[in-house]
């Protein structure tokens, strides 16, 4: 199988995978565009291989492979920057929501007329049945009756 046919087959699989991820809502529409554009670009380069040579001559790159790697690096860098900005925005939103929740809890507690409630401790991990419980023998039976 030639490299061009392999590239086209790989792009078709990529497009199918992207649409499956989109259909199952594992990826949002706003992230699909770059991957579809990349797949189309690879198909165009595979169908018209002379285009890669023409572009490398136009840009002044010695070989088309170097242009391909430089372009791939630029695409990956752009995706990383975009994802970093998304993560930063989500962290800021999470912090704001946590602060608003704390203020609402304080407001509810003060409206009840009591002191602010202590934070709820995390639930204990499930105990191993063979591990000692620290209770006196028969204490489990007495606790289950109440």
From TrEMBL:
Keyword entries, A-Z: Membrane, Transmembrane, Transmembrane helix
InterPro entries documented for this protein: DUF2304
Start and end residues of each stretch annotated as Disordered: 113-146
Transmembrane segments: 6-22, 34-55, 67-85
Pfam short name (any one): DUF2304
Protein name, per record: DUF2304 domain-containing protein
């Amino acid at each position: 199988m030639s490299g061009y046919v392999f590239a086209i087959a790989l792009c078709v699989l990529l497009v199918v995978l992207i649409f499956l991820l989109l259909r199952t809502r594992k990826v949002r529409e706003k992230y699909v565009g770059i991957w579809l554009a990349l797949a189309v670009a690879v198909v165009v380069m595979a169908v018209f291989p002379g285009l890669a040579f023409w572009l490398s001559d136009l840009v002044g790159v010695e070989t088309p492979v170097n242009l391909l790697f430089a372009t791939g690096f630029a695409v990956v860098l752009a995706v990383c920057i975009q994802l970093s900005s998304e993560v930063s925005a989500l962290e800021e939103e999470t912090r704001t929501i946590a602060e608003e929740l704390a203020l609402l809890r304080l407001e509810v507690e003060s409206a009840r007329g009591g002191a602010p409630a202590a934070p709820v401790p995390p639930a204990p991990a499930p105990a191993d049945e063979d591990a000692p419980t620290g209770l006196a023998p028969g204490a489990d039976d007495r606790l289950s009756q109440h």
